[in-house]
Amino acid sequence: MRLLSYLHSQTSLFTKVLVANAAIVVIGSITTVLIATHFWNGQGHAPVWEFGLIGAGLAVSLGVNYALLRVAFQPLFTLHATLDKVRRGDFSARVPEVAGDPDIARLTEMANLMLDRLAEHRQAVAAQILRAQEEERKRIARELHDETAQSLTSIVVNLVAVEQLAGSSGIDEQLRERLRMTKEVAQRTLDETRRLMMDLRPSVLDDLGLVPALRWFISQRVLPAGLKADFEVSGLSERLPEELETALFRILQEAINNVVKHARARSVTVRLSRADGHIEGVVTDDGQGFHVVHMVGKPMRDRGLGLFGMQERAALVGGKVEVESAPGRGTTVRVTVPDRRGG
Fold it and tell me: Any transmembrane segments, and where (predicted)?
């Protein structure tokens, strides 16, 4: 009983129906053979040809049975393949329409409706999370600027004044050295705080727009890391809507950070262009590359938050992110979003 229960739980519906139909055909054929044998033996003949014909008929019956079941179950196989694509992260996958079978057509319609609702819910949640994340970045950057940076600036100014007073009043050399070291630590902390503020929410993005912000980020992130950088812009002489500028900046920022941290590249090229109703940003490096298929095939939690975040941000503004790479041949990250004029 436990074996039957185990086989029932481990066997697909198609296999169960196939085995049941095959059992019916085999039992019917065996019964036919036994009856035919009984009559032929009664007449003193060896039923060799009859056994052969019955065996051939049995094989044809099983083959036809298998083919018919494959055709009948094809919509379920398609549904399973579609849901498996969704499980692997392809949220745009939908079940193709099947004509002729009202039950299967209804099942397909319900499955696609469920996937549409799931995509809408997922996109709404992602938008809320990213908006909240961006607002929190702004708040932290503002507090760092208004409180921490101001206090550190005051400390550095006062330490400079104390150091000058100590030098003019002939104070002990060890104490002056301590003052100098303290001033340097305060200055480094102030510089690090300013860098953190700019990473959280660069004011140049709000004040001047996407192109100056990317140029600033490349100068602050790529060049200090020892990489050669090239930044090309075409067709972007005016500001974009805020959400579009933020999405493009964050996506390209993440791609550039990946180059600096993981690519082992010597140079990186960043191109930003507007043409044919789209805005395209491309980050190309000459680093070690990786297997894109292996990365995409991994479960969502193992892909790395960088790639997942880029795809989410692009989807929220109606765009997409494509990654081209191969071991030893560098990597290209391309984001394309619909053009929306703003100011």
Answer: 12-36, 48-69
